[in-house]
Amino acid sequence: MAAALALCVAAACVLPARSALLTHGPPLAATPRAAARLPRVACEARPIPLLENQEEYEALVASAQAENRLVVIKFFASWCRACKAMAPKYTRLTEDWPNIEFYELMFDNNKKLCKSLGIKILPYIQIVKGEEGIVESFTCGPSKISRLQEKLEEHGIVDKPDYPEFTDVSSLLVD
After folding, report:
1. According to the model, what pLDDT value does residue 175 have?
2. What value does the mean pLDDT take over residues 52-64?
3. Among 26, 140, 159, which Cα is nearest to 93's?
4. Tens-place pLDDT, residues 138-163
5. Active site residues
6. Closest-CA residue to 153 (of 165, 139, 136, 131)
7. Residue 14: which pLDDT band, with cuts at 50, 70 and 90?
8. Which pLDDT band, with edges at 50, 70 and 90, does 8 fall under?
9. I want to staple 145 with a disulfide (CB 3.0 to 4.6 A). Which of 3, 53, 89, 118 is the partner?
């Protein structure tokens, strides 16, 4: 009895396609070959807010600093081919990093702001790390998305539980 599972391509999560989760036997996608046969459905991507103007940009940076939040801002243009090619990769990153806020700002409507920030090549990325302010600013095209990934790993917030390395149970073994 083969039950089908729908794999979410964007978020890499597994969603039941039918109510056949009560089957017995090995997992359906135990091998890459079996996983390739499963039907794929796309999940709706997390929307990326668009900053409309310089005031919204400055308010976002100020609130991120005041509230100690990690924020990524992508500067792009509607006519930029590299920006269009990078868009799906940037969207994928938003799903890989749910604890980080991602925003976009369109160059077309904010040339004065971009000039004041020294942005000359698009797409351009800024990372705001809470109280530290803007910690990274760099050009990041579609072939350099791994650089953004590395920067997120460097500055990203990782919640690690504070578990002891070992638990002493010797007192529980006394008869």
Report:
1. 67
2. 96
3. 140
4. 999 889 999 999 999 998 764 444 55
5. 80, 83
6. 136
7. very low
8. very low
9. 89
Decide the pairing of beta strands 40-41 and 50-51.
unpaired
Q: Give the chain's length.
A: 175
Token output for 173: 């073994």
Peptide bond into 161 cis (omega under 30): no
d(Cα 149, Cα 145) in Å, to the nearest integer? 6
Q: Tell me the C-alpha distance between 134 and 22, whole Å.
A: 50
Which residue reads 């900053």 in tokens?
51
